[in-house]
Design goal:
- The chain has 235 residues and is mainly β.
- It has one domain (2-32, 48-234).
- It has helices at residues 2-30, 35-39, and strands at residues 46-66, 69-70, 74-92, 95-114, 117-141, 144-162, 166-168, 172-185, 188-197, 201-204, 218-234.
- The protein has an eight-stranded antiparallel barrel.
- The model is unreliable at 33-39 (pLDDT under 50).
């Protein structure tokens, strides 16, 4: 269990460091650009764009229960998920608004011991999101823009599948708070953001059709934090 968590942390840290390294290289490439090019740059009032992202999901509170009794011998392994996002940016000098529509996939593996047997299953969750963000440009020099973003995200979880053989289509809705940074280099867009859920999500396996007998009576209570970094294009 502990080795799986260490491997997960190493994988997420490695991906994040690669992302930061790419941003630093692109930033250094922009340094030779002359000031006159910045002065001649046209700042549109409206931008639209899309991005592809990688989700590293962290559970701050995740518990398993068997007939309302908490299971202590359990482990959770978060695997990288993905998202596709389209957005509109409304520029008001150094302040901007950014509404977004997004689809996301999250993946986890959960293992636990119950009734003298070990159980392992994988879980995939799909969510549709509406993000409402506000931002502030720290740097607004020609094609290079660096900004802080924050706001709310409304997640509608419409499908959760387990081991690809049975699934729950009971939807649930969870609001999140978001904060992060974005970088524009001409039409290339990068951002990194961190989301915190406001409420716990509870999944009762008894409500899932065709659930195996070995998982009946099990319920999952979790509260998720999500680190996301992505790249895309903005026009």
């Amino acid at each position: 269990m502990f080795s799986e968590k260490r491997n997960e942390k190493k994988e997420n840290t490695s991906l994040f460091m690669r992302f930061l390294l790419l941003i630093n290289i692109l930033f250094l490439m922009m340094l030779p650009v002359q000031g006159q090019q910045y002065l001649d740059y046209n700042y549109p009032v409206l931008n639209f764009g899309f991005r592809l992202g990688l989700n590293a999901l962290y559970n701050t509170n995740c518990n398993l229960y068997s007939e309302k009794t908490e299971l202590t011998n359990k482990s959770f392994l978060n695997e990288s998920g993905y998202d596709i996002n389209t957005f509109l940016r409304i520029n008001l000098d150094r302040i901007f608004m950014q509404p977004e529509l997004e689809w996301s996939l999250y993946r986890q593996k959960i293992s636990f011991s119950s009734e003298n047997s070990d159980k392992l299953f994988s879980m995939k969750t799909q969510a549709a999101k509406v993000n409402v963000l506000a931002g502030y440009y720290f740097t607004k020099n020609g094609p290079f823009l660096f900004s802080f973003i924050c706001g709310s995200s409304f997640h509608y979880y419409f499908n959760t599948s387990f081991n690809t053989s049975f699934q729950s289509k009971t939807p649930h809705f969870v609001p999140y708070g978001l904060a992060g940074f974005s970088i524009n280099i001409s039409n290339i867009y990068f951002d990194v953001r961190y989301g915190i859920s406001f409420f716990n999500t509870n999944i009762s396996f008894d409500e899932i059709p065709d659930i195996p007998e070995s998982l009946k009576g099990i319920s999952l209570d979790k509260k998720e934090n999500i680190l996301n970094f992505s790249c895309g294009l903005i026009f």
